[in-house]
């Protein structure tokens, strides 16, 4: 779900909290050693998300925030902020010359550069949280 979060809106906050959970508490953030990625350069997005990128040759930046039941991807376009909420059960991450995050027929690709490489620990933490979430619903008969 892609939302314009430039201004604080209670309805948007409720939607995000219902989809990916409320933010982690301060103690949980300390235990996880942080829940946010560093700023990364957005290389490409799916055609149905092209409207959130800058139309001029400005660099587009994004970062990722962990939530208990999913992630939030924050993207800035000029003075506007957009948030893409993705629950873990719909999240797919590909490691191809950077990182590509897919959900519901949409994707965002982050460029492989210095800032992306600094986020390697964060992506490992993201995948560990996704595995923990998926283990709750393991219905394997074996």
TrEMBL record:
Highest taxon listed in the record's lineage: Bacteria
- What protein name applies here? Arginyl-tRNA synthetase
> Which source organism does the UniProt entry give?
Olleya sediminilitoris
């Amino acid at each position: 779900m892609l939302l314009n979060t430039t201004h604080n809106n209670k309805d948007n906050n409720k939607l995000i909290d219902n989809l990916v959970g409320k933010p982690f508490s301060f103690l949980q953030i300390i235990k996880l050693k942080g829940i946010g990625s560093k700023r990364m350069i957005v290389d490409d997005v799916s055609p149905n998300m092209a409207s959130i990128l800058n139309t001029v040759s400005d660099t587009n930046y994004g970062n990722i925030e962990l939530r208990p039941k999913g992630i939030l991807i924050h993207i800035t376009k000029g003075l506007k902020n957009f948030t893409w909420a993705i629950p873990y059960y719909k999240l797919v991450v590909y490691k191809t010359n950077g990182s590509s995050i897919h959900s519901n027929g949409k994707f965002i690709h982050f460029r492989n550069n210095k800032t992306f490489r600094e986020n390697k620990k964060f992506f490992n933490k993201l995948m560990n949280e996704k595995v923990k979430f998926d283990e709750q619903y393991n219905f394997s008969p074996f």
